[in-house]
Amino acid sequence: MQNSFIKFAATFLWCASPILAQNLSPSDSTKQPSEEILTTSSTYPSKPYSFIYGFDFDFLLDNLEESQIYHWPTRTLFSAALHPEIGFSFYNQNLKAGIYTILDMGHQNLLFNSPNNLSLTLSYDFSYKGLRGVFGIFPRSEWIGHYSNLFYRKDYLYYHPLSSGIMFQYQNPHLKAEIMADWTGGSLAKGFDEFDIQGFVEKSFFERALYFGASALLYHFLNPEFLSADHAYYLNSPDTYLLDRFYYQIFLGTDLKAMVPMLNKLQFEISNLSSLERKRTHSHGNERFANLQGFEFRSNIEYKGFGIDNSLYIGASQYKYFSSYGQNFYTGLPFYQSNLYDRAEFYYEYKNDYITGRFSVIFHFMQNGVSNQEMLTLSLDTHKLFKKLAQQSR
């Protein structure tokens, strides 16, 4: 599998480079999507090449209470992350390398004791007429899709900030889409493989007064050592060797911000939010997929930074095997195990060209109880900051 992937990537780059060099000349006046991600360089913009640099900072304070009923321990997360990066830009193509480090407060030596908190990034990307391709290890902050809390929760994305694989994106004023293959783990020596494939598409009309789309996430997890946590054995070996999961959301919504300019947000959305799950075992082969159907109604209203983001889920209990594998395996909010779940977030958000700060008080209303959560997040994008400073100095 690795050899096939390497051959494909090498062939693609060999074929694409002459085309990109020819069609994406420095005189092309079309704004590059990658310019929103990369810094201004120390060379003049008119040159076909430049040195790029920057570092991003993220902060998380997350306190969760009364969540034990759904096998999610209460906890307080207090952490900071830094992502310095350098690279080389040429003909709307970029080659970048950096590190990503996460440090929990109160554990000053954690960086050196835990290699998982220090990761490398290495990526190549190109842009051409709204199309963008990325190859390698890159930050998940480069996603353009919006994914439900059933797919990912915020603390998971904070502590797992990188994608490893291939991503293609397309954007124009009324359409955006992306698809990505992410190698999340495994062991070639043991024959384990863990990867996911996810995608997003949204089509909008009348300045998003009407929009519809879909998102999906497919997990392939072949790791009998981890899956033995269900304590099922066959001939003195773990019985479960693979677990398939497929999450999807089909949505229809309206964003009335253009009609009510005094508001920052006025959005309403209805969606089919569902999943499929099954185990593969040595003793009984492939189980039948558990078809877990549900619907979600979401509203988001914001005025001068103060807002309410509410989502109501009604449907089947999600995460069929959560009691066996827990929060490190299931990456979304565990409260979707409830057949009736309302998430009400009251927040204040400050945002400008390069920094976003948000403080939230969140209530989780479920059939069997209520949980509360307080969260403070801060993100500084120095790529955009350096670009802004360079424009002001001209």
Query: How much helicity do the residues have?
Result: 10-25%
Compute the number of strand runs: 20
Structural class: mainly beta
Output the strand order for the largest sheet. Answer: 1-2-3-4-5-6-7-8-9-12-13-16-17-18-19-20
What does the largest sheet look like? 16 strands, antiparallel, barrel
Instruction: Supply Rg.
Output: 22 Å
Strand content: over 45%
Number of helices: 6
Order of helices and strands: HEEEHEEHEEEEHEEEEEEEEHEEEH
Give the termini separation. Answer: 50 Å
- Please state the overall shape, judged from the principal axes of the Cα atoms: globular
Low-confidence stretches: 1-45
Mean pLDDT: 86
Q: How would you explain this protein's 3D organization?
A:
- With 394 residues, the chain is mostly beta strands.
- The protein has 6 helices and 20 strands.
- The protein starts with a helix and ends with a helix.
